């Protein structure tokens, strides 16, 4: 950490000047505390609702340049990883910092495969949900429930134990996700198949019926694997922040991951791809697109799948996903909603409102159309996102746990409520 400059500030209340070191393009918020009007003053705070301009950690995992549309995991461009690495190798990269060599890759895949089963009581737990329970609600609950099956996970400072929970969580996510789906369909649970790849096994647990062995279509298997990679990490987004915040209290990783999944459930985050499909269905036909765009511009509705807190030119994941869509549709047939999506994109990218607001398709705009063409019901979309994001959550959690600068996360507030008052009606 090298000081690259000094920010000189003068407090107009006292006339006193201060020098705040600039390190890596940031000042430390705690340095503001010395700026006081009196000795017993608490000191100056920075006010940053939704943490729009606050770095909450130092991280070596994911780099994003929102203006240039750059996303890299551990230095590697997402475009190269999406094309040439498997999702499990990307998970290894996120967690351990380097891509695995060939033998390491095989050993890692075997380790994950070894942990895909869940305790039979998890099935009973899932059975307790109502038939129309949202699979994301089931997933959030079952991830949290896993903590009760592995009480040793509470030893969060033990590196070997930590590693075991990491493998279990990555391995069991597809199983929990597929079980949630099969419960909703009233189908018997399909157990993991060790012979299949990570994505292939998930497809098998989703779709296997009476056939002795399910054989996934290799194009769809590869497309799903790539979609998982595209979702694997995205630095300090809402769900990852939830993972880090809950992890900072030294809660076990299952509890922290359940909190992360709960954050992902929201329609402004991982629930957005589900909302995109609902929106496209509601629009109904290409002819209705201009009228819908007008409603968006009037502020009546948001164009779901557009806009991003960080990307202000394009989302590189959306570009890759558009390419995958063509491969998938060659197998599944064209999703009729694609025409509506393409027309929405065409009009929006040309429209002054969207250009001036820097609104572009994000990762969710096309992913839902692909998932639907592959046969996934809309409610499963955020669940698929959660499977892909798990390695990122865990890598960020590990990094936070090992960071000597981190403490329990505890923001400050600016109190705006009543002054002192008493039950007898007096004040002060
Ligand atoms: N449609 C129409 N207008 C929009 C949209 C949109 N999708 N997104 C932002 N705007 C407008 C806002 O109305 C606001 O306009 P104003 O300044 O004239 O009032 C301006 O753009 C800024 O919007 P904010 O909500 O302040 O932007 P923020 O960075 O907080 O939000 C977000 C980012 C939540 C992604 C937003 O763009 C959105 O709601 N998009 C739709 C939901 C979505 O697709 N979410 C997925 C995100 S990607 C992911 O989680 C993987």
Summarize the structure.
The protein has helices at 78-84, 87-96, 102-113, 120-127, 135-149, 159-185, 198-207, 218-230, 238-247, 253-264, 272-283, 289-298, 316-332, 337-350, 352-356, 363-373, 381-402; strands at 3-10, 17-23, 62-65, 70-73, 76-77. It has 428 residues and is mainly alpha-helical. It contains 17 helices and five strands.
Index terms:
binds acetyl coenzyme *A; 2 domains; about 425 residues; 5 strands; about 5% strand; single chain; Citrate Synthase, domain 1; mainly alpha
Overview of the molecule:
The chain is mostly helical. It has two domains: 3-47, no CATH class; 71-407, Citrate Synthase, domain 1. Helix content is 50%, strand content 6%. The chain contains 17 helices and five strands. It has helices at 78-84, 87-96, 102-113, 120-127, 135-149, 159-185, 198-207, 218-230, 238-247, 253-264, 272-283, 289-298, 316-332, 337-350, 352-356, 363-373, 381-402; strands spanning 3-10, 17-23, 62-65, 70-73, 76-77. The strands form two sheets. It has a three-stranded antiparallel β-sheet. Strands 1-2 form a two-stranded antiparallel sheet. A hairpin with a 4-residue loop joins strand 3 (62-65) and strand 4 (70-73). Helix 5 (135-149) runs antiparallel to helix 6 (159-185), helix 9 (238-247) runs antiparallel to helix 10 and helix 11 crosses helix 16 (363-373). It starts with a strand and ends in a 26-residue tail after the last helix. The model has no long low-confidence stretch (mean pLDDT 95). The structure holds acetyl coenzyme *A. Acetyl coenzyme *A binds next to helix 16.
């Amino acid at each position: 950490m090298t000081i690259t400059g000094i920010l000189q500030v003068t407090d107009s209340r006292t006339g006193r000047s201060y020098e705040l070191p600039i390190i890596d393009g940031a000042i430390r918020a705690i340095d503001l505390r010395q700026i006081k009007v009196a000795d017993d003053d608490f000191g100056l705070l920075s006010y940053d609702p939704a943490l729009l301009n606050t770095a909450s950690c130092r991280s070596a995992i994911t780099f994003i340049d929102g203006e240039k549309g750059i996303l890299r995991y551990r230095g590697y461009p997402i475009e190269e990883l999406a094309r040439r690495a498997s999702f499990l190798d990307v998970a290894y990269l996120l967690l351990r910092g380097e891509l695995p060599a060939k033998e390491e890759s095989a050993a890692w895949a075997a380790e994950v495969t070894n942990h895909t089963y869940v305790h039979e009581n998890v099935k009973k737990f899932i059975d307790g949900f109502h038939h129309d329970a949202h699979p994301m609600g089931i997933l959030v609950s079952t991830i949290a429930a896993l903590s009760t099956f592995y009480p040793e996970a509470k030893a969060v400072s033990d590196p070997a134990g930590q590693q075991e929970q990491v493998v279990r969580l990555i391995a069991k996510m597809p199983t929990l996700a597929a079980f949630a789906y099969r419960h909703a369909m009233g189908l018997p649970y399909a157990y993991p198949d060790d012979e299949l790849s990570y994505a292939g096994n998930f497809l098998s647990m989703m779709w296997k019926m009476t056939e002795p062995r399910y054989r996934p279509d290799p194009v769809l298997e590869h497309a799903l694997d790539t979609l998982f990679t595209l979702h694997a990490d995205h630095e300090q987004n809402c769900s990852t922040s939830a993972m880090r915040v809950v992890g900072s209290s030294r809660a076990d990783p299952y509890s922290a991951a359940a909190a992360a999944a709960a954050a992902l459930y929201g329609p402004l985050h991982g629930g957005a791809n589900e909302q995109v499909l609902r929106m496209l269905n509601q629009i109904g036909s290409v002819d209705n697109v201009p009228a819908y765009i007008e409603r968006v511009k009037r502020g009546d509705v948001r164009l779901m799948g557009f806009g991003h807190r960080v990307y202000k030119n394009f989302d590189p994941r959306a570009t890759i996903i558009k390419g995958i869509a063509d491969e998938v549709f060659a197998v599944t047939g064209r999703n009729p909603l694609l025409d509506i999506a393409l027309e929405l994109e065409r009009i929006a990218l040309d429209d002054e409102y969207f250009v001036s607001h820097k609104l572009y398709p994000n990762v969710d705009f096309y992913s839902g159309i692909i998932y639907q063409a592959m046969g996934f019901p809309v409610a499963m979309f955020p669940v698929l996102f959660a499977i892909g994001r798990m390695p990122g959550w865990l890598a960020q959690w590990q990094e936070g746990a090992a960071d000597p600068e981190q403490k329990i996360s505890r923001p400050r507030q600016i109190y705006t409520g009543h002054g002192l008052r008493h039950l007898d009606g007096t004040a002060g």
